[in-house]
Fold these 4 entries.
Entry 1:
Amino acid sequence: MDLILCHTTADFDALGAAVGVARLLPGAKIVLTGGSHPAVRDFLALHRDEYPLIERRAVHPEQIRSLVVVDTQKRDRLGKAAEWLNLPQLEAIRVYDHHVDVATDIPATQIQIAPVGAATTLVVEELQQHNISVNSIEATVMALGIHVDTGSLTFAQATARDAIALSWLMNQGANLRVIRDYIDPGLSPELQELLTTALADLQTEVISGYNIAWVLLETTGYVMGLSSLASQLMEITESDALILAAQHIDDERLTIIGRSRIPGTNLNEVFQEFGGGGHSQAASISLRSVDVKQTLTAILNKLKKQTPQPPIARDLMSSPVRTIRPETTIGEAQRILLRYGHSGLCVADSDGQLVGIVSRRDLDIALHHGFSHAPVKGYMKTNLKTILPTTTLPEIESLMVTYDIGRLPVLDNSELVGIVTRTDVLREIHQEETSREQTARDSILPNYRQGAYQLLRDRLAPQLWELLIKAATHASQRGWHLYLVGGAVRDLLLTYFRHDKYGSDKSTFNHNSSLLTDIDLVVDGPVANNGIGAGVQLAQELQQIYPNVRLEVHGAFQTAALLWHKDPVFDSLWVDIATARTEFYPYPAANPEVEASSIRQDLYRRDFTINALAIRLTSPRAGELLDFFGGFLDLQAKQIRVLHANSFIEDPTRIYRAVRFAVRLDFTIEPETESYIRYCIASGIYNRVQGDTPALSTRLKGELKYILEAPYWKRALKLLSDLGALKCIHPTLEPDRELWRQLRLLERCLQQKLDWQQNLHHWLLRLEAIVAHISPEYRAQVATNLQLPDDSIKRLASLSEAQTKIEELLLSYQQPSQVVQLLRRYDTPTLILIAIRTNRRVRRLIWQYFNSWRLIEPPLNGNDLKALGYKPGPLYRIILDELLAATLDGKINHSTNSEELRKWAIAFVKNRYPQQKIS
């Protein structure tokens, strides 16, 4: 076990550095050795589950392998955890600190100390050196560490290295709103007096769950730093928006400053109407000789009108909720947590009534004390805080922070209908922040979360748009949410980037039904008592509206498909409608087990961020782009990024999908994703399960078919080769120069427009050529594992023997007829495979056979022989073969006159077979 130790009363720098070290040491755990600052405590009340934190009492000292100490060099600042520094089995002790004038008393094996403003800066620099990225929540706490210890780069100890580290963290997605929430700038004495007055006179109103505050101050003249006062006042009062007005008595001037962190509001628009301006979250105006109260009221009213309805629990919650009984053992509950990746479980009685919640921390402590067989009812929390489906996001966030609650059950008439976790809240907060930052940073798709609806309507043919509206209407009537998901959303956004970004005429793309021929819809709704999912129910209702459509239902996965074939309205359209579901892989590369779940979990089960986008089609918030994993930014960055580290282990065929998307879209594979790919291949997981998991083989064959029949197959194969991924086909497969030479020869052959070529599957022949590059003893088994057709398996099994025989005989033959007689025993694919693998002389004979000799026919046929009086039978074949041989070898004189040629042939036959003629 690797542990990261923060000093007692941990501050943000200690926590930020520890989180960064956890990325440097995968699997390491963070221990807060003794309490934390109040701000850190409040921060962890909401974010605790996002970091690998464990309790000191849950540590088994004998299992500790190494220690990392951050933001201190003194033993006495580690509390009781200092005892671990003397453990005899320790392999390493590492220290990160920025206090250069302190003498260390820690027996460190490696020390990283430098005169920078924050210890976190040192860790960030090492992350950059190793090209290790961090997620938004990790970047946020590290940025907080630097901000707090450097006074946002204003303290004397702040350095350029701190600024560079902060810049990198911002690029990694550090959430500026959260950082602002936990930074406390100081005020001048004059501003402190005004702060006291403002707190006494402040007025507030709750609009749609958001606290909007305003205050009017009187000053004798202009006061510097009113913007800082507004920010401080907003933080102290925990307001979501603030309008601060200062009336200067001596010159009748009015200064108004606005601050807002309410999603969807734009203070710049509000203040511009009065001659001021700024940006969406901060704006100001200075006026003279105006009605102060009237102006302040007008600005407030405009802000209130902008305030949107905040997300409510129904929009955030995961449903259905996975529950356990009070009698479930601690060990079984822990297994369920690991299986589904939860951080806690609801406990319900036999009537389905909620009676408690047990968290991962509760289970860890019970297991630590050896109570794996004890029932969870002895460890669950029964004094529960619950919420309603209509509880707003600000109210939910407040409950979690106030009571340090990681999950809130959602009850509707005492029935457990969902659960909202810290992760759900954080995703929503960070997504809103990303939306605002993206809008400010890039105008490609302004307000992209809401603009997706207009984009969808513009890009779809009217009949497709009408279909989606009808589907959304029926879903809404049942209280379900409906989403357009996956590739359709990706391709719509890509169309916008690739055309509108460069000034193309939008009308060129409007109402173009070719943009979407396959539509994937997901219904976030319950499974009925009869086991029929919401997706299937919706598909059945749509079939009643469109009687010409064919309905296919796949009950095991709760999916349905609506298929039109050469329809006058929809042409050949395929619409998949699925119930939102999650997947669990019981073992690596297995066929996943599927269960009904929420839209978030449905998107999380997908392969890459760019395929985990969805557009909400139902109200409220219709047209919202759901982007929980940064897919929108990855589309702009033109990169393929996997959703989680184990994705390729769970399904190695995703390696081929990553390459296919990268080449087809002209994207790059994000560096960390590439490292996951290489790790998966190096682990040999595919070789261990190959042949034992038919579903995996089916998926791999499908990916190979997609790649090898595409025009970009050469580039894709080259990228697979560079990644070492062709070893997934067989560990001995080496894409050397000889294989590339054979594939080039194969393409030359396939590019020839010959009639005999029409029945060949080019992708399959390319795959056979690749498999044939493996040693002969493995070819048939590899072809069997890939579930290739029977004739392909037989061909690859006998290819080596056939090649040896053909090479030996062809080199000894002198006449074309001998070549034809030999080669016509083999099918075309076999001869092509041998030709690209053999020497030049043999290959030329095979090519001549294909292009010339194969096309030559004898001058007579069976009807001619019958007319000459020969009795039908085996003799016909002998005579015709001899005629063909004579023709090929030039024994029959060729004439431009076909009649002359027939005479020569008849004479040849009569001379060769005079006794066989029937008189």
Entry 2:
Amino acid sequence: MAHTAHTQFTVLGPVTVVTGGRQHRIPRAQTRGLLALMLLNLGRRVSREAVIEAMWGGTPPSTARSQVHNAVTVIRGRLAEIGAPEVFASDPSGYELLVEPHQVDAARFDERVRLARDAAARGEAKEAVRLLRGALDLWTGEPLADATGSFVDAARARLVERRLTAVEDLADLELDLGRAEAIAAELAPLVDAHPMRERLRVRQMTALYRSGRQVEALQTYRVYRNLLAEHEGLDPGREIAELERLILRADSGLATPQTVAAPALLPPDIPDFTGRDAAVDDLRKLLTDGRPAAALAIAGVAGMGGVGKTTLAVHVAHQAAPAYPDGQLYANLRGAEAVPLDAADVLARFLRALGVDSRAIPEDVVERAELYRTRLAGRRVLVVLDNAASEEQVRPLLPGAASCAVLVTSRARLTGVEGARWIDLEVFASGEAIRLLGRVTGDDRVATQPADAAEIVRLCGGLPLAVRVAGARLTARPSWRLAHLAGMLRDERRRLDRLATGDLEVRASLALSYDGLDGATRLLFRRLGLFDVPDFPGWLAGAVLDGPADAAAHLEALFDAQLLAAAGVDAAGQIRYRFHDLVRLYAQERAEIEDPSQERTHALERGFAAWLGVAERMAAQVPGPCYAAIGGSVPRPPVDWPLDDVDPLQWFDAERAALLPAVRQACELGLDELAFDLAGRLEKYFDIRGMYADWNAINTLVLGACRRAGNRLGAAVMLRGLIDVVTWNTTPEGGDATTRFHTDAFQLLEMFTELAEPRGMSDAAVMCSWALTAQAAYPEAVDYGTRALRLAEESGHKGGEARAHVALALARGEQLDIVSAIQHLHHALAAARALGNPRYESAVLQFLGIAHREAGDLDASEQRLGESLAISHRYRDNYTKVLTMLALARLHLRRGDPQARSAAESSLALGREYNMTHHVADALGVLGEIELAGGDPERAVAYLEESVAMWRTRGWLSFLAAALVSLGRAYAAAGSPAADGAFAEAQEIATRLGRNGSGQ
């Protein structure tokens, strides 16, 4: 680009190329238009499509590409002809002009205007005038005067707007320098050329008035008023109308301004300001760099009380102050207090700061606002409106001049303030909060006690006000270790008391927001704060307020007051909300003060019951164990949220983090009926997602609560699910899993029998049958399986029928009656499909695949296992997948297929991940058999010894016997004398099972 330095280009008049002081035209108006387009897009590569769009709009000719190419060729040829270097760079992606900004008159104009404004900001009015006049001298006529193209009219209008704005800036400066007569003469032809531009008229009227030409100034106004009425049907704007009024009464404020000190009302910057880098950059750009030339810049900061809005605004205002040399106005509007400041009072204060004598300040608020805007016209003043209450309070305080800017803070987003760009201020991340704590304390305690510092800011919830209070307390007590303050803050009931020092108090800050709410919204705040959940769906508001139609409005009022934060839209499409930890503590504190205990409990009951009602509906659609859905008697309140077409698993995924603590809180409050019913609706979800630790913990907790309350039905339902988890997903500390399974299953059957609950009795009888099969009591297992089937059929428990047939198939299969087992499994499959439960269908298909393998039909086995695996993948169901992979591994092993190893290894990995002890033991056995078949008895022994050890904890005799036989073979192949012992123990178990031979 350095080669083109001696070449200049013009667009602020005709489009020309200048070399050696001589102007050269480019042939054809359209070609000049293409050159102008590129000159106005310096530093950017413009695609061929964008060029065509700019030149012809939406209707380009079929030859558009070739015409563009020809125009570029013409420009290159003309430049070469006059001795100018090549400036076009092109490739398949488009064109770029290799020209520096200082070579283009429009870019030089913009740079000089920018420098002029910087000079004005420094108070160098004469230098600013010099620069502006130099910029305006670059104009030689109508911009892009001899160029054509669809883009030209809009580009010309933008350039003219930049010129007129510069003229208006120049007029303001010249008027302040007392040069009214000269500027009045300069403005006359421009006003004639742009008769509808009000800002030019204002400056012309001011110049005429200050030149002693009051009558001409008023005539100018009347001409404008008539033009506006005739052509637009409108009245003049307030600024020019107010100027006419002031001229009529010869207001002293219109005289050439005397030297008045620029207002500097900003509070001092915060010396320990910390973090907020992105917010500071965004606000500074809004107030300085990123401003549209013809619009008032308004930046807004919204956030909860104590989050640091004022601190940020004052800090940014000090940084932006050099760009506003005519002063900075500041007012705390007290928007969170019971009686916010009246805009009229703020206007009076601002007017006095702007040099208006108190006696000249109008009484009427509208007239004050008009005078305020007049005083700010043409000045560069930053207005900071801190802690605003509403749009109505802010609007009268907005300048009319685009040369000014406004920074507003509020606890609510004041979206009705036109043109404002808002940022939402969140609490500090841990690192920022720790840095703030360290800067406030001013010593090395934070650096040397990092864990305790992290705990303090965690307990403060990252709220800057709370962190600052904590730091102030530490500063006042240099002997305290951070652990001491952290210990004090852990007491939730006293935490807000301890986050107060001097005039800094978290509780007081929150109280300002709370007191500004109406009664119903305050009630909702207190009731929602009772729930110890990380977040919650928006429909909970209606439940805790007993379903009023305007619950959503009260919820939004809490959100607008920054007492509640939006947590986003979850996977089920619900809008979720959350409390800051300290806000929740304040809400609970207010509830304890204002609401009787029974009302608080009632609100919690309704909220939990609303969750239960939705969970009940969703759980019915979750595939999983075919237990009977046995619930409690708690009424389910209606929920104002469309439940149709919601994926139930997505709903449970979204709600899990709230449902688990909700169940725990219900237990703590003695709401056992709610607790067991809600926990019961989670069981199928726990199972399909492999959340066995959560399932175990929740059912154990609720079982204890039900037993303490004497809730026998709840205790039975919780024990039923707990038996499954404990049996298949835990390792017993003493004894074996099957023995405990047997004891618990028969206890459960007794409990449901006492309750006369036939569906529960069927579920329990199935468990008894499984336990008896594991202990080789096959006739009794068949009896209990048959009993379970009868109870299920009589009570219409279709899932119980499916489970009973599987139990009977298992008992028959262990008796080596494979034909009967397959018949029962086909009945189970039909029942599972009739129930619409694909997950249990998958489980039945597994057993069918295993049964067909034992019957020697390997193709049928593979087909059934493949069908089961497809369902597992569909539901991300790793539990069912483990057993399918195990069955496939044994199938591949029987066929001699090398896939056996990968299938067994996958089963082992998943089994260990989900603590599926039974399946881990089985997978180890399969891998041992694979190693033995592959001729590596030592590796086989390692796998099989671990498998046998695990089977001893399981207590399932047939599996233990098979593992002992495999281990004996591995020992024998390795030449170990331990083989005889393994075979002997296997023979003893086989005898108990009624089978002949050890399987050697």
Entry 3:
Amino acid sequence: MIKKFSFLIGILLFGLHYGQKDKEQLQKQNAELKKQIAQINTDLAKTRNESKLSIAYLTNVNKKLVLREKVYSNTQKEKRFIEDDIYLRQLEINRQNKELSVLRNNYAEVLVNAYKNKGVQNKVTFILSAKNMGEAIRRVQYLKQYSDYQDKKAAEITRAANQIKNTIAQKQKSVKDKEMLLINQQKDLTTINAERAQKEQLVAEFKKNESKLTGELKQKQAQSKALEGQIRSIIAEEIRKAKAEEEARRKAEAEKIRLAKIAAEREKARIEAEARARAAALEKERLAAEAEAKRASELAARRAEEERKRTEEAARAEASTRDEARKVAAKKASDEAAAKAKVAADKLTAARAAEAALEKRKEDDKKAAESKAMTNFGVSTAAGNNFAENRGRLGFPVDKGQVTHRFGRQPHPVFKNIVEENNGIKISVPAGTRAKCVFPGSVSSVLANNDGTKTVIVKHGTYFTIYSNLGSVNVSKGQQVSAGTPVGTVGQDFDGSYTLDFQVWSGSTPVDPLGWVSY
């Protein structure tokens, strides 16, 4: 029964080991969440002097409340881990007490037996009463083992008692951890209730000022519509100019290509004529080489045949000194004929190679002439725009900010009867933040808005990025800008917050900037 109970406790302790890892993970997560809460508190403190009736302020309060509730939820889980730990520690203490009781009972029996056989005399008598020396030695070993067994049992009891003390200490530590956790949890709950009340008060303030805020919001929306009309006009004009420039460039390029082709054809005709004259000369040389090679080959064959016949005649009769001389002369004539045949064959090979080289050089010269003509007439390929290739990897337009309004039709966070139409995103930033260009391009326009703010439009080929609600600008129309170039300082919105209105347009169509920038 004890073995089964010990096995069950072992399984529970194994689960406790992994529960401890989960608890540590929760503690790390809570520490990170508290850092985020501290950062939000810092941001709220910075904007406290600005109007609190801003969506950015309310968004931060909501975000902080969500983080607080996450911390509270994690603390609840951590409390359950600690309670499981306390319960399992108690089970372990009960198991260890049972084992200690068994050890003590066994040790008591050992002590009783030892008491019954106590005294040095009894041990000596036990040894001396052995029948022979071997049995006496075995009895000595038995007494030693029995004494070691007593010491071992005593050590096991001491060790088990120490384990119980350690387990009790761990349980007491878990109890204190739970008590401290409950205190902190109560503090967190109080803070959550206070922050929830702050949020409700803030929403109530919004409701109290609903008519004023909705009026300002509608005025801002009207200004945004007017600005959108200006942007559309500017982009339409840019597209019209780009198309006209492209058409003019295309026509100029076509004319350049036509003139270049005429010049290239003339140059290629000249090269062709020169090549034909040279080819005729080479062909004449080749034909002469072929005829010479043929004559040399026939002569060598004739000499070889004559030599063969003389050799056969010399084999049938005794050769005289005159015959030997004729044989040597014939051999020399045959060798000379073979050498001439080889020279002729080499000339023929060289002539054929020269003709092939001429043909290749002619084609290369014609291609080079065409390329040179295109270059001389200024024919080139227009460089493509790679804005689209960097989709999702563009830089963020500010160093630090929070998106408070997303792209498209969005319900107002407080006034549910108002729907906002956003051609981009709105980013709440600290005062003094500078907006940055997200990609190389040229400044298409710098607009002055009716509310005193400014808008910068940057062209990137067929794409445009727009930076609105700027208090001041750092660029001018026609200026070439790089990724990261400051375009201006973000200004205050009507609700007192500092907000950048950032847009991305593909031609005349606004697209969601969050699909383009790395956020």
Entry 4:
Amino acid sequence: MGRESDRRTPPDTAELETAVVTVPEMDCPSCSAKITKSVESLAGVETIDPQVITGTVTVSYHPDQVDQAAIIERIEAVGYSVQSIPKPESTSFSVPDMDCPSCASKITTSVEQLVGIEAIDPEVTTGTVHVEYDSSQTDTEQISERIEAAGYAIKTEHAERTATFDVPDMDCPSCAGKIENALNAQNGIFSYDTQPTTGTVTVTYDPDTATQSDLTDAIEGAGYVVEGSRTEGSTSQETRPRENPSAVWRSTRALKIYIGAAFLALGLAVEYLLPSLNVVLATGFGQAVTLTEVFYILGIIAGGERIIRNGYYSARNLSLDIDLLMSLGILGAVAASLIFGEALYFEGGTLAVLFSFAQLMERYSMGRARSSLDELMELAPETATVRRNGEEQTLHIDDVQVGDLVIVRPGDKIPMDGEVVEGESAVNQAPITGESVPADKTEGEEVYAGTINEEGYLEVRVTSTAAENTIARIIEMVEDAQREKTDHEQFVDRFASYYTPVVVSLAVALVFVQPLVFDATWRTGFVHGLTLLVLACPCAMVISTPVSVVSGITSAAKNGVLIKSGPDLEAMGDVDVVAFDKTGTLTKGELTVTDVVPLEGTSRNEVLRNAQSLEARSEHPIATAISDAGASEGITEHSITNFESLTGKGVTGTIDDEQYYIGKPELFEDLGFDLGHVHVAADGGVAMTTAECDHGQYLDLMAETVPGLQNDGKTVVFVGTNDRLHGLIAVADEVRPSARETVEQLHNHGIERVVMLTGDNEGTARAIAEQIGVDDYRAELLPDEKVQVVEELLKQSSGVAMVGDGINDAPALATATVGIAMGAAGTDTALETADIALLSDDLTKLPYLAGLSQTATSVIRQNIWASLGIKTLLAIGVPFGLVNVIVAVVVGDMGMSIGVTANAMRLSRLKPSRFF
């Protein structure tokens, strides 16, 4: 029974939230009393309902006064562990006739009669009813019935849910077609996506019309076993099959094939080696059945049972696929033997055993392709050590919450994305970013799930749930990448839609044309037609592209390159121009002091000290560079008063009662300085041409010194007072060490032009361009002008890849053929906006990306034309008796499927080191 504290006023249900907490150890009234007393002491708690029978505690509370974490702490404080907090499901109903508060009240009263309703929020202005409910006690169908019972009709187009089913036996387009036909017959389905390369079926459906069980039944009604399922938003991957590809050779079906092959071998032995044993065992339809033929029939039964079963499902789902064709061929061979005396038992048995073996080989090959994706899923551990209330406990990653403190010891994988709050260590980020050198992590730095803590002890504050962390997003994007078909895949699908009916028609024609027109025997016509039926299946050709795409994309993901779709992989293979943003891409994006030039008798240290003191309060990147330079040399700052920012020019402040300035040359020209005649007392490390005057040596800063520094890619600021120029400081953005070699390797891999785009001045841009070795550069560009340059490059090339940070360069990235974001690990915006994301700031991955995409495009073309060409040659040879059933199955079907898969799997072995 529930207990409500009499110290509280009646609750305002509109302001309340409900938590349902599972407490397995609460197994008696005494336990429930202790928990109630502890929890009701919290301000903001309205009602407490401990249920000993179910081991749950339901608490209603005001979220502005207390939260679920505090409630859990109170339960644990009296000695009980909390197992989970099931969250209520939510749904919305469109009720257009609900147009006044009276209507809303009637609907609320009606729905509240259901057990398990957590909250109801009718919005009269939008005609929508939002309901939170406990799915173990009620469902959307019952809720909709209560709304309709109040006299209001529901518009159902809002209802939508997505579920993914694991169907490992679906390993070819033929299988996918049967499942699609079965789903087409199911009411309430909005869309579906079958992926033979991953063995998954994703269905978006109306939960008011169809249930997940209905969808499972439909898939299994097509002849395929559903081995797991998960709904949209599910964080766990436990339902995904992780069968070892080699397990197919130990399966029940494999055993039947072995038995079938043994019977065929016995039949051949009796027929050719022991003919005396080949006695007649039975007669029927006017035909005698010998021992040899009995062995062949047993071989057909053992080897062909699964084929005929699948053929039945194909016929039931109106799918003209290879299973139906092979079933007709096997049954046709038996019928021709029994009725016409053609003795085609051996051919039928051979077809049954070889084709079944071919399907096992395809399953094995596809399993190897799928395992590359499973490797990604295994990166993150399934459990985490969490410290709550001072105690360490091991939880499944789905139960770890944002804000939890995760303990990571040396050698452990980091289970969640988070921020280091204690400890320091070298973390191997290669599983996520592909970086070969471990990254040093200290307090305040970000770490990613799936990376490996190599040395020290770390405490990490969790920043995202298991469903939303970096590795989960990468896995989701890799799975989604295959759904958008490439140009090659679309071509193959169109071709296959014509190919199969044409070849089946030719097979039927052979059966009749050869005996009737060319005076061949019916046996010959039937065997030739049967052989052509085997070649009618375009599976090898259809699977050739998606298996290549999956192999290439998963290979890239394991090496720190996230390719968002198959078309992006293919498009990158056709790129011949690469455009780079400069800052943060070709350069590190961090300014450093390169030169300090003292003037008018001031020492170098004093110039830097004055500049550091002025810039200490500024957040400008130049200020940061100067402050870092002073700190690294151990220079202490002056005390500053009257600090002021001079917008667009620099800053000023008072040091020892004197006004100091630091900023652009224009600032000091405005102060009245003659920058063409400035005396210099010492060489500041810059090659300077001085002239003589009555007071010593002087410099023409604006004609010689400043342009010379700018031509080296440096930015110049001046330091001084109202009446004396103390010196100048040059800062520069350091070029990445690998930038020049990256450009060279891109050229080596077929990229014709490399262009640098920057908003910097002409002199800086020219200096960086020459240092890196790009073919062209464009300077002083605004973001929209970068877009114009990319559009211009597109007109001059077959494809342009734009490389930037994924945020500031978003317009140019979107305009290019392929947009590539640098350093995207942990960055939602970059992961979402770019076509391809380099998960680390490693330029050397670009030649790998270019090489991988070019190789993938080449592999796709090889697979398509090889499968098409070989099947065509075999088909031509059938009428001439050059190709029999065995050759058709072993070479045309099994051989090609294995061949294209093996060729595609070459992509998984490509490593960045091969291209750099």
